[in-house]
Design goal:
Mean pLDDT of chain A: 95
Structural class of chain A: alpha+beta
Mean pLDDT of chain B: 94
Radius of gyration of chain B: 21 Å
Helix content of chain B: 25-40%
Strand content of chain A: 25-35%
Number of strands of chain B: 19
Strand content of chain B: 15-25%
Largest sheet of chain A: 7 strands, mixed
Oligomer: heterodimer
Distance between the termini of chain B: 33 Å
Distance between the termini of chain A: 91 Å
Low-confidence stretches of chain A: none
Strand order of the largest sheet of chain B: 5-6-4-14-15-16-13-17
Low-confidence stretches of chain B: 415-420
Number of helices of chain B: 12
Radius of gyration of chain A: 38 Å
Structural class of chain B: alpha/beta
Largest sheet of chain B: 8 strands, mixed
Number of strands of chain A: 50
Number of helices of chain A: 24
Chain lengths: ~1000, ~425
Amino acid sequence: MSQQRNRLATGGRIDRTRPLSFSFNGKHFEGYAGDTLASALIANGVRLVGRSFKYHRPRGLLTAGSEEPNALVQLGTDAASEPNQRATQVELFDGLEAVSQNCWPSVGLDVGAVNNTLSRILPAGFYYKTFMWPKSFWKYYEHVIRKAAGMGRAPESPDPDCYDKMHDHCDVLVVGAGPAGLAAALAAGRAGARVLLADEQSALGGGLLGRRAEIDAAPAAEWIAKSISALQAMPEVQLLCRSTVAGYYDHNYLTIAQRLREGSDPGRRCDKPRQRLWKVRAKQVVLATGAHERPMIFRHNDLPGIMLASAAQCYINRYAAKPGDIAVIFTNNDSAYEAALDLAEAGVTVVAVVDVRTAAESPAQAAVRSRGIEVLYRHAVVAASGRRRVSAAKVMALDDSGESVSGAARTIRCDFLCMSGGWSPAVHLFSQSRGKPSYDASKACFVPGQSVQAERSAGAARGSFALAECLTEGHEAGVAAAAAAGFQRPGRPAKPPVAAKVDEAPLQPFWLVPAAPPGAPLNKHFVDVQNDVTAADIALAAREGYRSVEHLKRYTTTGMGTDQGKTSNINALAILGQTLGADISAVGTTTFRPPYTPLTFGTIVGRDIGALADPVRMTPIHSWHVANGASFEDVGQWKRPWYYPRPGESIQDAVNRECLATRQAIAILDASTLGKIDIQGPDTAEFLNRVYTNGWKKLEIGRCRYGVMCGEDGMVFDDGVTTRLGEHHYWMTTTSGNAARVLAWLEEWLQTEWPELKVYCNSMTEHWATVGIAGPFARQLLSELTDDIELDPKAFPFMTYRAGTVAGIAARVFRISFTGESSFEINVPARYDLALWNTLMTAGEQYGITPIGTESMHVLRAEKGFFIAGQDTDGTVTPLDLGMDWIVSKQKDFLGKRSLARPDMLREDRKQLVGLLPVDPQEVLPEGGQIVTDMDQKPPMNMIGHVTSSYYSVNLKRSIALALVRGGHKRHGETVYVPLENKVIAANVSEPRFYDPEGKRMHA
Amino acid sequence: MKKGLKKYSLFSLVRNALSYHQHWQEAWRSPEPKKAYDIVIIGAGGHGLATAYYLAKEHGITNVVVLEKGWLGGGNTGRNTTIIRSNYLWDESAHLYEHSLKLFEGLSQELNFNIMFSQRGVINLSHNLHDLRELSRRVNANRLNGIDSEILTTEQVKALVPIINTSPRSRYPVLGASLQRRGGVARHDAVAWGFARGADARGVDIIQNCEVTGIRRNGAKVEGVETSRGFIKANKVGVVTAGHSSVLAAMAGLRLPIQSYPLQALVSEPIKPVLHTVVMSSTVHVYVSQSDRGELVIGAGMDAFQSYAQRGSFAVIEHQTGALLELFPIFSRLRMMRQWGGIVDVSPDASPIVSKTPIKGLYLNCGWGTGGFKATPGSGWVFAYTIARDQPHRLNEPFNLERFTTGRLIDEHGAAAVAH
């Protein structure tokens, strides 16, 4: 195990009593609890962490936070492996394993780095200009390009971990627990508001964790600790660490991704989920999201060892890890001077501060100078050198305009370089809330503009970078948010926490270090380090006309990496503005999209996976079907018995047996999935009259009627039987798959178009269960189980309904038939369903009662020519096309009627429902087969229709089919052809009724 | 290629590298709008730019302007999931999309702009018996229409896409699929840029940041358009403004049978290639492919409400991701990098309107719903024909505006059971 050679002897918020061992690229290291992977690597002197996307350039750590573009690692192994993890956000744990990505064979020696040598002919968008010859070769070029693309690897087996979700409401959601966020939470909490404070880091404190500052005349750490205990003492306040507010949606709906533990927990233990997604509806939101420091753009500014000044400061103060021994600092503002002092304090030799500004009097600058650190005013780092880490900075003087450099170059040796190009408020969530950021020229950054939703920004997130301002603004935002949510602190107002005001010399915007020597082309001035986009690429895009920020982004890929440009976007916009000679405010920003940082898919899904991916609906008799070997089919969310194979039976054998039993003995069918809608109210008859194509005004109590519903377009949408149970009480049935859609359809009309109708619909699909018995012995069987329903066909004719008792259970019995046999549909409250079924099975044994599945039901109804909505229709079929003129009323109006009068509905060559009898009666047509009349044509062939339903009918001892055929009603007797991949089946067009066309059996 | 346009090639890349890429031409000009044009195209999306390109190329009409209120290619062209296929059920659709697919096949060379059309195959999955019937119907229709299409068994799906979950125990098991090998994806921005560059080189003016605020008519005849940069006279105006078609048509006094909905999409972080084919399932609602950058590009559903807000919504994404992980369990630890929404114009039959209108000189190209990208070149081609000749081409004749009154619909949502 190697020594932590860059670990400071004291300090830091790490627990030196808890050493943790980890491996990086196969080498073993040690760190401490409280470290991130990044800080542990720095403590161990590891500089080279990864390779860039395009040129495979060596890269180290740029930042210490969630904005990190470079240090992406593959974490963990096998199924628990995770690509593209930011080392700056991975908390160290014992046994952590991580490797560098996008490099082969190793991060030190990477073959892909050849791209770097070729970089001159691979500028932004080069791929749009080449790989076009020869035409057929793109697939080979692409193969190579694809291999080079991507970063980490997907795991190779399913995720062993479990994820969770939480819904929450709060009065005030505070995003970010830095000085502004903590002050806001305290203020809102004290006012009595229900506060949720979320922060992405492992500890509360935000940027304060990496700085030496004083609040209320004590070290900031003390104030943080006091604030946390104060908040924890408030029962209505919830504190969430490791919780990234990822998305800000409409109506103050926000998502928070909470990391509950690192690594993986084998065995999918759902009592210990890995991550939890909070879905929060907040009355008020305070955005205290802080700001991101910007890099300086100079030649080779991407070398390992070049990092943001605030990052170096954070590694020293928070983790007691020294990024190196000799530092050069390059800045355009005062904040880097604070970093310089902290570095010097920690024993780093700060050889120079290079400042693009002219000398000014500010306490920070004076303090640096008084420590004997050389400050080079009006100078710039024009280039860094070094192979796999920075070893020197080349510094030149800036001329008055700042647009070019002059004089002799001075080379300053160093082993790391800190830079600060100013700060960009993290306006991401504000922008997601639909707010428009506006450019503040005095602060050289985009700040939140007008609020669109109930939110306010505070502190660095709105460009107030000084600690004193963060605290007061946070406090004020907390008070205001609580008040807006209805909470005002009684008595005198609480005092905000106080920090000393520090005078700062103003920042000087400085977006791009001029090329050196003057006139040389810009080369390797990196703007987006993850995607290897340089200043020259941006200039090229502008030159070629890609001048909108969105074009720039898409053409150069700047800001399109996993960091979504947190450290690069503003620099890119400014350089585009400079190139175009336009103001940065005129250039504008691209749209910030959710999520703030990438969101694990598992977290988005939570528990809704596997068996819970979509609810499984089962009838009360399901267990019986399973026990009796049923094979199931999915019908919407329902599991329906498809057929009941006996040992050794094929599906056709089973279906043949079930179909014969129906016509010769008795069949029993679980029809509980049928949609059932209870409709009541004095206007129900009028309502039905409008939604069905036939008349409903004269239906007597106790009678059933079959109806077809059309959409506004006149196309068949659903069908079913509706029964009048009482004066103002009806019972509608729908197809299984359409139950919800039909109810929604009825409600849409009732609520939006006909609110004057007094009609009330309720879904009863799962309250009532339905068992159908059909066949010559059905009446006999039923008679043995009821003594209060008269079953004689004259007393209880076809298409009527009776209430009574069946097998001792209060039941509604309907004489309706889908099989064409004499049948009874017995409805009982769902909890009695299985008892009813069992009784029927036992009593029916002597008659050869046979359970049948959906497949037999489909065969039997096809023998009768009954269509199935959605199978024999497809949204383009009218009732007339089905040959059901009799059901379309000419007297009254109904939904779809006007559409049926359109010219196209009257064409004679519309596709119409017909029967098909294959010439070879043993040959079954495939459903979906297309029909032609002329087999001599070549594609495109003239298709006149298609096979919608097709079966072997054991009752008819031949194959039968239903089809939609152009002008089909006039084609009866014609021979048509169904050309398949390797054969052609000929069939004769017929009436779509093959069995008992007069319907004697079902009326019997 | 038009004279004056400097050709893109490996050679030109090398040559320009020597001068540090200082001498590349603008891909398109940014001219001042003239006072009058022969034809105004409203909307510089892929379809509008393709229309202008083919007006110049196929019909020799170059006094054309394309007006864009934002930046070219910034609407649905730059927001879709880039899937291209032609395996549609209805003859009318199949012929139109097949024409488009054929144009795509030579487009990089024709435009001298690599649009990266990758014919890696499109798989449509079936999860229940109803799906299988519809699959067979569509594949049979495709075959007889001369469009490549084949049926895959579950095992063949697994062989082609090893990472897909084909377990019979999954909630909606994969029972089979169709495959169109010539289908695939293309780089969406490049399609817009390539057409823009090609049209510009032929003399078409493309005016960005120029919003049309009114369509001026004289009785039943178009006279021109009011814009944020003044009135522009033209006797022919083509409206190609997906997501906003009803708004533009209303400026001319036309009420369209169009509803506009946000459609959701997202991408993952880039990972090394694991998915080499486009996989679509309309039953569980997943469309996914992996881009050449390595991102998983994932199409989700529409919001349940009508809106013009181009916003990502979370509820749709949640539902969609569940289905995604059912199909691809190894994606669970990968991460969503970005989500967004685009506005789709949906017609009553889910088929487009590419048509003349009752107003002379006003032409409409809209209603592509969720599937317009794949039609880009074909749509532009037939629309250019329609405008140039003042009569529809045989391929778009069925996609007329009158069909909603005659009833001759091309009902893709009822019939195809395949999302676009």
